[in-house]
Amino acid sequence: MLAWGAPVEPPAVVGIPIDFILFALTLAGVALFHRHTLAIAVAGLAVISLFKIALSPFAEGPGLAGWISHFGHEWVLLTNLLGLLLGFALLSKHFEASTCSARLPHYLPDDWKGGLVLLVMIFVLSSFSTTSPPR
Q: Residue 12 belongs to what H/E stretch?
């Protein structure tokens, strides 16, 4: 039986907690299969959650009750991560639709101003590409 608030040692392989390994595999999956980011992220969340529920108790308690209590504390973080993933997906779709890469000048500034100019270009070009198809 675990004491409330006692530190919990998660199962590990060569000193690396298994949930960290699962998270690294999720990140690798997102990087390798970037066209399916949301599905891989949700699958990774499900696998890590099931692992933690079954084999690695939370500080709030073991099993499903511990997971629900832990989720009550971490829902804001997960919502922010979901928003970040959806925001990057939306930004990449804007970049593809803007046809900016075909029109991208090779003389963009090489510092932070280059990124700012690129964002302005994507905004302007995506505004025009929604009214008429690119030629």
A: strand 12-13
Q: 28: Cβ–Cβ under 8 A, 6 or more apart, which residues?
A: none
Kindly tell me the sign of the dihedral angle through the C-alpha atoms of 117, 118, 123, 125.
positive
**pLDDT value at residue 133:** 53
Residue 3 zone, left/alpha/beta (φ > 0; ψ -120 to 50; rest): beta
Distance CA 125, CA 128 (A): 5
| Count of CB atoms situated within 10 Å of the CB of 25 | 14
Is pLDDT at 29 greater than 60 in this prediction? yes
Any idea where the domains of the chain sit in the sequence? 1-94, 98-135
**Whole-structure pTM value:** 0.57
